[in-house]
Structure formats: C-alpha cells, structure tokens
Automatic annotation (TrEMBL):
Organism expressing this protein natively: Lithocarpus litseifolius
GO CC terms, sorted: nucleus
PANTHER family assigned to the protein according to its UniProt record, in alphabetical order: BOUNDARY ELEMENT ASSOCIATED FACTOR, OS03G0264950 PROTEIN-RELATED
Protein name per its UniProtKB record: Uncharacterized protein
Molecular-function GO terms, alphabetical: sequence-specific double-stranded DNA binding
GO biological process terms, semicolon-separated: regulation of transcription by RNA polymerase II
C-alpha cells in the first residue's frame, strides 16, 4: 500500500532552485515573465510566489558570489602555482 509523503514548501529553496535552473540551462531571465512558465509553476506548487527578473538576477548574483568565494578559498589553500586559461572562439 502506498503512503502519502508529507512535504514542506520552502519559498527560498524554490527560488534558489529556479536560479540554479536558469544558470544550468542558460535560460533568459525573462523566463520568469513568460505566462506559460508561470502557469506551469503554479500548477506544480500554487504556494510559490513567482519573482521578477530583478529579483532572480539578484539571486543568481548571490549564487555567483558564494561560488566565487568558495573557489577563492580553495585557491588560497593551494601552495602551488596555478595557471588559469580559457579558450575564446572569435567569430
């Protein structure tokens, strides 16, 4: 017999996951304004209050700052030299 799982909705955690989804899939910030996306999100969790582009941008920058700090901390712990390079394709 299947049981019903008790779940707890967390607005802040949902916002973080929305920001991570946008980062991971390189979606435009305007996705939060798309009516189809809003309807879909509401159908999954009616309690989720959709944020505006400015708010999701701040959330994404907060994630970036946190990850940058973690990276800098790891680099500072390293006693060796580090060379960081990137490939840039110019079209």
């Amino acid at each position: 017999m299947a049981g019903v799982n008790s779940s707890h909705f967390d607005q802040d955690e949902s916002r973080k996951e929305l920001a991570r989804m946008i980062i991971l899939h390189e979606y435009p910030l305007s996705i939060v304004d798309h009516i189809g996306f809003r309807r879909y999100s509401t159908s999954l969790q009616p309690l989720f209050k959709m944020v505006c582009r400015t708010t999701i941008r701040k959330d994404i920058m907060g994630i970036y700052d946190h990850e940058r700090e973690k990276s800098m901390h790891e680099i500072e712990k390293n006693r060796s030299r580090i060379a960081i390079t990137i490939d840039m394709l110019w079209l």
